Each structure stands twice: as C-alpha cells, then as structure tokens.
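Why does this matter for the project? Reviewers at the last site visit asked to see concrete outputs rather than summary tables. In response, this paragraph embeds two records directly. Each consists of the residue sequence and, immediately after it, the corresponding structure tokens. Nothing has been edited or filtered.
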Amino acid sequence: MNATERDKITAEIHDLTVTLTKQPHDISALLTLATDLIAVADFSQAQIVLAQVHQLAPEKIEVPYNQAIIAHQLKQDEQALRLLSPLLKTKLVGVASYLMAVIYFEQNQIQLANAFALTAAEQATAGLPEYLLLAQILTKQHLWTTAQPYAQKAYDLAQDDPDVLFVLGGCLINTPDQKSAGTQLLKRAAQLAPQKYQTAVAAIFPDN
C-alpha cells in the first residue's frame, strides 16, 4: 500500500467513526471500518469492531471471514482455517477458498493449495489475485500448460505486474515456440522488480 492509499483509508476511518457516533448500529459502516482497520494493520481495533458486529448481527458471515484474515496476518493459520472452513458453503466461497489456498501454499501443502485455488479461480467474481495464485501454484509443480491460461488471464488484467510477468514468462519459456516471448517477459519482470527477480532471471539466462 502506498502513502496515498493509506491516507485515503485513514480519512475513511475518520469519516466512518463520525458516522458511527451518530448511528452506532450501522452494520455496513461497522464492517467497512473493520476492513479499513485490517488494511492499515490495526488488528486489535478491527477485532473490537467485529465483535460489535457479531453482537448486533450474529448471522453476518463477513465477521468470521475478517477474523480469519486477521488470524492469518498474526500467523495463527490453524485458527484462520477453522474460521474459513464453514464459509465454503456460503456466498463467500470464493474469497474463503482463495485465503485457504494462500495459507496452504505458504505451508507448502501444494495439493490442498491447488484444490482451493482452483475453486477460487472458477468463481464468477475471480480476478487478478485468484488467477495469479493458481498460476503460481501450478508452475511450482511445473504444470506449465495447465498454468498458462490462468497466467494469461492475470496478464490481461495487469501487464506491468512483475509477479504476473514472471509466472507467464515461466510458462512460455517451457512451451515450444514460445521461448522468445517468455524470455522477454522474464527479463521485464527482473527490470520492474530487481530485488525480487533479478537473481532468478540471471540464473535462467546466465549469458545475459
């Protein structure tokens, strides 16, 4: 998050706080405030707000979802998974599956990560994060052909994202007749994010 985005969220937190002094039971405002507090990493305040929402509207499935995000940020992944699992049968199946895939990928449980990332990527609401994550999980297994369509979808949405360039480049250099295009994408990823990708790309193309 850049400074402009942070300032915008901070301003929104202030406005929501003002709104809630007049309408303390505004569920929508409370949930937005919790989301904003999570975005600026104020987890303790976010937890307090989510507890308020749970008291006012215990049926709101956004509460356990946001609590799972906080648990993941605090490295309490088992708790996060427990909170997310019941959400797989709700309208939040896409975002819950995505976060479960992230957790399992970080734990190197690749098959579980693969399954949940696929569920997330197949939702009608899927976008860049879902396509990129699934492509990354598939390329880790060297499933280049399977990964490429998802990497391509991610690229269509974000052609200057170094993570996208790296994963699609990896697919293409491992595909016959696509090596030149793959080389260009990998080198561009290294240019855009040298600290992250320069070493890896130099190892792939030692002569350059």
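We now turn to the second protein, recorded in exactly the same manner.
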Amino acid sequence: MTRDIEELIRAAQELRADQAPPADRVRAALPRRTARIRKQRRYGLAGAIVAAAAVVAAVTVPSLALRDDTGIAATVQPAAPGTAPTSAPASPGVPPQEPVPAEVGLGFRPTWAPPGFAEHIRMASAADPGDGFGPVLRRVWKQNVGTGDPWTGAELSLSVFSEMTGADIDRSGQRVDVNGVPGYYSPSHNDRKSSVVWHPAQNTVLLLSAGKLDISKNDLLRMARSVRPDTGVTGAPARLNWLPDGWITTSATVSGPSPSQWRAEFSAVKNQLVTDTEKQRKESKDGHLQATGQLSVVVGLTTDAPSGGTELTVGGRPARIPVRTDEAGKDLLYLVVDLGGNRLLTLVGSGAGLTTGDLRRIAEQVEIDPAGLDWLGR
C-alpha cells in the first residue's frame, strides 16, 4: 500500500459526502458510487466479505487456523480474548452501519459473457447510511487477472442493488427491453464505458456496465438478457474475528485467476458523527457519519507493503513492521505476516487512534478457510 494518505482519507470522505439519495438519478449515480468504492479500495480502504457472524465467543477466541490449498490445517498460538466485529455504535439521528455479512446472496447471474471473459472478482459493500443505495454485490468478468490488485484492464460487471426500486432509476437513457422489463441503455461517449440498468424484481435494481472496453450494444444487451436468478451465496476465504471498538468492515473483495490463487481484501473504517451546517441540515439530516480511521486487510500471494522493517512473531508466525519515511506515507501503520504456503497477510491503516498493537491483535484473530472458490476463473 504505497498510496498517498491524503487520497486515502479523501476517498473515505467522498464515499459519505452525499447524505440524501438523488431522486431519479440512480442510473447516473450507481456508476459513480461503484467508482467511489473502487477508489476507496485502491487507497487501502476496501476489501472483502466480513465477519458479522464470526465464530468467536465472548470470553475465548479460537486459534488462528491456517488451511492451505491442500486442505491441511495448521494451528498456531491462541489469540487474545476479544469479540467479533459488530455494528458500529449508533449516533443520535444517524442509523447504525451494519457490516458486510459473512455470506451474501448472489441474487442474479449472467448465463452468457463475451468469449474470453470469466468471473474473477466479487465485491460486497455494506449499506452506507448516507447514500440510500443499500448493500451492493458486484460480480466482475475479465479476460485475465493477476494475483495482486485486480482492478486493471477491461471489465464487465453486474452490480446487484438489493434495496432499491424501479422508481429510483433514471430513465434518460435509451429505452430497451430486458426480458420483458424496461431497461435503459447508456452508450459510450468515446470513453469506453457503457451500461444498461433495469428493475427485474421487487427492491432490486441491476446494473450491467462495461469499463475500458469497446463492446457493442447488441453484446451488452445479450449479456443483460442472459441474466437469471441465482439462489447461491458467496463468502470470503478469510474472516476478521476482531476489530477495535467502533471499527466496522464496510466492504470485502475476493479475486484471483483461479481457486488456488485467490486474494481477499477487507476494508474497515471508524466513523464519527459530524455536525452539518444549517444549510446542510435543511437539505439532509442533523448530522452524518464521517470516517476518521481507515484500515485495509489483505490475504494474498503478494504484498504492496514496503520491504524490510522490524521483525517479530505474530500468532507464532514470522512478521515484520515496515515503515515509510516519505511525507505521503509516514502516518501509515503496516504489518506483514507470513502465513506459510507463500501466502501473506498485509494490514495497513491510519487514524482514529489505531496502533501497531491493534494490527497485531487483528492479525492474530484472522481465520483462513479457502472453500467455495470454484467460481474463480469460470
């Protein structure tokens, strides 16, 4: 994670900037929100399916279980007692923010994608109290993806918004038919971006979008019209069993070229209530939540952390604490743990009183179980 801390904080602030959902502007707003989520993730704030229902008792915590791709489990030192991450504390006038659950319903899936494209990314985002869009599941088809940051190159993504209605859709696009349901197609404006949005079921809006890709209207509509209900669920091959008080996991991303080369990334924040100006209060609410601390937890085959650093042991595993001395990164806290089997655990965060001790405790209670990844690369 070598990104500018100012950009990291700005991304979190932008994600919560608009307190009232814009009426009849969802088709335009949804790509913007997913772009915000991606920007947040790219600066160390996003990542993977989270532990709302983590298997942690209130008094005792299970050992850090590490299971490699052969299914052989390794047990290391027991973690310190703690509690599982829960909802962020409610503030007066502001609803509590719920974490991303350990498993998320898929809802829908396309049965056709252009030749050469396979599903390589699933990203679940918790509902943001300020934007009115509710939780989002995003499934992404790409031609290829590496073992590191997956958000490069052409992509086709299906975003499932499970708390929205057809009344929220902007109808300014070209009207099209999606299996008997009205849809609205937005063509590329020489920016290699196009999309179609429709409302196939109660409280559900689907957005199929193309990025960095020249795709014909016919092919994009063919993929949209191939979408069918999917009763399956998806989860992450890792779980966060503890976060400091007031912190909440807001998104989770699983990616990789194949089931044996997976990557899981979690994003967490600590919010505080911000008092709005008089004008803002009239337009929205008495106050809103703003992130004061940010944290990224990544389990993968590579790390973006700087090399070197103080060596130590975390949960019986070799680890190091890299340090950046440049102005942009001097306030970032890092911890890299070698999980064995060429797999690394990387934590990076800042703000809200976060300490290296907190990173150690989070790392000690991460649980790894790479099951249910057969969809990667298919």
